[in-house]
Amino acid sequence: MRIYKAADYAAMSKLASDVVAAAVIKDPCCALGLATGSTPLGLYASLVARYEAGELDFSRTVFVNLDEYIGVAADDPNSYCSFMQRHFFSAVNARSVNINIPNGMADDTAAECRRYDELLEAHPVDVQVLGIGHDGHIGFNEPGDAFVPGTHAVELDARTISANARFFGAEENVPRRALTMGIGSIMRARTILLLAYGADKAEILARAIRGPVTPHVPASVLQLHADVRVIGDATALAELI
Ligand code: PGA
Predict the structure, then answer these.
(1) Is residue 142 predicted with pLDDT exceeding 90?
(2) Distance CA 221, CA 143 (A)
(3) Which atom of ligand 1 approaches the CA of 138 most closely?
(4) Is the CA virtual torsion 206, 209, 213, 219 positive or negative?
(5) Does the pLDDT value for residue 241 go beyond 90?
(6) Catalytic residue annotation
(7) How far, in Å, are 4, 37, 216, 234 from residue 82 at the CA level?
(8) Are 186 and 33 in contact (CB under 8 A)?
(9) Using CA atoms, how far apart are residues 69 and 178, in angstroms rounded to an integer?
(10) What angle do CA 11, 15, 17 make, to 5 degrees?
């Protein structure tokens, strides 16, 4: 695990963007595993700027997103599909045929999970972008008694619901369930970028990186991966370096 301490959010986003840009330049057909949340917004803005400057071509890149709320339609402004369109896909030359996000409206959740796992088998992820939840989640892999390998439906943790209430106006409006890529799929990515910003992430980041590997802190599994780059700002890394 390599830990990069960035001076601030802009520097963190630039470092992350360097890693993703290098992967796309090296192999324009690469598969990028992408995440939603506030943390990667600067990364997406930086990639968009590089695209607009003519440095990057995403026309053959495959995108696989980590997760989606169950019961929120793709065109709902609060869906992760909308989030990704707004902040990244619509601003670059991503082709819709190459954009993959779990379908939270699928009638048959088990079939949708199988479909997503097959897709991940067909498109091994080169660089997986991750944020970290206050409860240690990655994607929507919430704390539990086991690491779940494949795509699955989850009940969101109370801390996740409360953190995401800011997008829905009130906690009661936050969906209770989601589909998420599993821990096994995340761990199969060639390179993982774990981004963390802000003092409120310092404690959980330290537990994930220095504490025991346990499904009760899902991000701790990343200690077992051969190429994880943790990129955080000074406040998120305060308890580590
Ligand atoms: P955030 O979310 O980037 O909005 O802090 C991180 C996460 O829940 O994975």
Answers:
(1) yes
(2) 12
(3) 9
(4) positive
(5) no
(6) 67, 135, 137, 142
(7) 30, 12, 30, 31
(8) yes
(9) 4
(10) 115
